[in-house]
Specification:
Elements (H helix, E strand, L loop, with lengths): L1 E6 L4 E8 L3 E9 L1 H5 L6 H22 L9 E7 L3 H18 L3 E5 H7 L12 E6 L4 E8 L2 E7 L5 H11 L6 H8 L25 H16 L6 H26 L4 E5 L6 H14 L2 E3 L11 H12 L27
Parallel strand pairs: 1-4, 4-5, 6-9, 9-10
Antiparallel strand pairs: 1-2, 2-3, 6-7, 7-8
Helix pairs in contact: 2-3, 4-10, 5-6, 5-7, 5-8, 8-9
The protein binds 5'-O-[(R)-(carboxyoxy)(hydroxy)phosphoryl]adenosine (KG4) and zinc ion.
The site of zinc ion has 6 residues, from helix 4.
Length: about 350
């Protein structure tokens, strides 16, 4: 079954054709990152406008590169939540139009379910159940993936998402957007033990995270140094920051893996591209005999192939939308879209 998938939840306009949830026939991504970089972050209004301008060409190219037409695909999947509402609506309305015009099933996909499913595209043996760590620009979750469309959230961030923390720390350091990438580039030249950043305390949960204190510590460090006329070696601070974020993520995730007896751990989302996190998680998993899966770098960030992968499993489970489908800015990963129920 070949599914045309569309993703427009943030600043990437993307389309892909995916076969049976596992094989990428085409994947086209138009990124707006340079334009938003000028403003130091994503400007929602600009994002929506660029999606409108790009979506037709991006979808056409994805179909063409896969050797398909709209008529020959089996279904249309689209990211319908969570994300920037104006940006999501461009993709959702476009997908609705295509599905209606060609009389194809319309499959709404949760963006974070898609991030996890990116791993299905490169690891044929990977199947639920497994433990997932989703770390993106807007979300940080430890989640039990009980089945292809069944989830249970164990832990979440109490304040900033991991990617947001990277972006804010980078901004304080005067590094370009997206900050996670900028910090990651600097870390190989830095000493991760140069600055002892705090491990924020989170009460009431063994698995929740908090990152805002870490960001504040970076801001204070820079501020104090500036007042004294000192400069802080950027690579050392970047390495120390990445190290501490990885500490927090590794510790909580492995605690959850042990408590709930998971032998398979899957990373997902933009921050899963982080080299410090990947290395430290790999070391920790190897010590405990846990199999670790992380998407190859091009599949860590936003793309439509991952939406096609998850869309396949949503369709198999009977989830289909009608023309009343709406986008939602916020939605938990364990919830279903309104009026979209297994048949
Ligand atoms: O998943 P994603 O592409 O979009 C959302 O769904 O939010 O994640 C984007 C986030 C940004 O905050 C970006 O700074 C971060 O992922 N990111 C990284 C790296 N690459 C992207 N953070 C740390 N290290 C990286 N290599
Ligand atoms: Zn994302």
């Amino acid at each position: 079954m070949d599914i045309l998938a569309i993703e427009s939840s943030c600043d990437e306009t993307a389309a892909a054709v995916v076969r049976d949830g596992r094989e990428t026939l085409s994947s086209v991504i138009h990124t707006q990152v340079e334009e938003h970089g000028r403003y130091g972050g994503v400007v929602p209004e600009i994002a929506s406008r660029r999606h409108i301008e790009q979506i037709t060409a991006v979808v056409d190219r994805a179909l063409e590169e896969a050797g398909h037409t709209l008529r020959s695909v089996d279904a249309v999947a689209v990211t319908a939540a969570p994300g920037l509402i104006g940006a999501l609506l461009v993709g959702v309305n476009y997908a609705k139009g295509l599905a209606l015009a060609a009389d194809k099933p319309l499959i709404p996909v949760h963006h974070l379910r898609g991030h996890l499913a990116a791993n299905y595209l490169c690891y044929p043996e990977l199947e639920p159940p497994f433990l997932g760590l989703i770390v993106s620009g807007g979300h940080s979750h430890i989640v039990e993936v009980l089945g292809y469309t069944e989830y249970r959230i164990l832990g979440r961030t109490r304040d900033d998402a991991a990617g947001e923390a990277f972006d804010k720390a980078a901004r304080a350091m005067g590094l370009p957007y997206p900050g996670g990438v900028s910090i990651d580039r600097l870390t190989p030249q830095g000493n991760p033990e140069a600055f002892s950043l705090p491990i924020p305390h989170v009460s009431g949960s063994d698995y929740d995270f908090s990152f805002s204190g870490l960001k504040t510590a970076v801001v204070n460090l820079l501020h104090n140094a500036a007042q004294k006329g000192e400069t802080i070696p950027a690579a050392d601070l970047a390495a120390s920051f990445a190290y501490r974020v990885a500490d927090i993520l590794v510790e909580n995730t492995l605690r959850a893996a042990e408590r709930f007896h998971y032998r398979t751990l899957v990373l997902a989302g933009g921050v899963s591209a982080n080299s410090t996190l990947r290395r430290r998680m790999a070391e920790a998993c190897a010590q405990r005999g846990i199999a670790l899966y992380a998407p190859p770098l091009p599949l860590c960030g936003d793309n439509a192939a991952m939406i096609g992968a998850q869309g396949y499993y949503q369709l198999l489970a009977g989830y289909q939308a009608d023309r009343a489908l709406n986008a939602a800015a916020n939605m938990e990963i364990d919830r279903e879209f309104v009026n979209v129920l297994p048949s």
